[in-house]
């Protein structure tokens, strides 16, 4: 009778162990599935961010290309203003000298 009881106890223990192993495997599979989804969403987010950085970099390069064409540097603007002012001063002197000659005639 002891062997029969021992056999039943051993069978119950093996069944319980099998149930626990199955439950742990099921939990690990769910956790793995959850991790896979999480990594997939992180990869999508990373791809989106990468595309956004590429767009920003492209816009920055376009801006660097158009700036010299569309805008004047401060030093160049000052230089042009000085040239124009000197030409205006020379023209004013010519007008004054012409007026002085007309007045003396």
Question: Summed up, what is this model?
Answer:
This protein has helices at residues 2-70, 74-104. The chain is mainly alpha-helical and 105 residues long.
Shape designation? rod-shaped
What percent of residues adopt helix (DSSP H or I)? over 70%
Largest sheet: none
Strand content: under 5%
CA-based gyration radius:
44 Å
Overall number of strands: 0
| Terminal Cα span | 152 Å
The helix count comes to 2
Provide mean pLDDT, rounded.
92
Which residues sit in consecutive blocks of at least 5 with pLDDT less than 50? none
Fold and architecture overview:
- The protein has helices spanning 2-70, 74-104.
- Helices cover 95% and strands 0% of the residues.
- It starts with a helix and ends with a helix.
- The protein has a domain at 72-105.
- The protein is mainly alpha-helical.
- The protein is built from 2 helices and no strands.
- The protein is rod-shaped.
Question: What is the secondary structure topology, with strand pairs?
Answer:
Blueprint: H1 2-70, H2 74-104
């Amino acid at each position: 009778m002891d062997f029969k009881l021992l056999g039943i106890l051993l069978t119950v223990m093996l069944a319980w162990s099998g149930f626990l192993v199955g439950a742990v495997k099921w939990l690990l599979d769910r956790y793995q599935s959850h991790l896979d989804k999480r990594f997939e969403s992180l990869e999508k987010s990373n791809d989106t961010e990468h595309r956004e950085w590429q767009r920003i970099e492209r816009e920055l390069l376009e801006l660097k290309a158009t700036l010299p064409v569309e805008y004047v540097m401060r030093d160049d603007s000052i230089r042009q203003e000085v040239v124009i002012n000197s030409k205006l001063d020379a023209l004013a002197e010519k007008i004054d000298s012409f007026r002085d000659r007309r007045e003396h005639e």
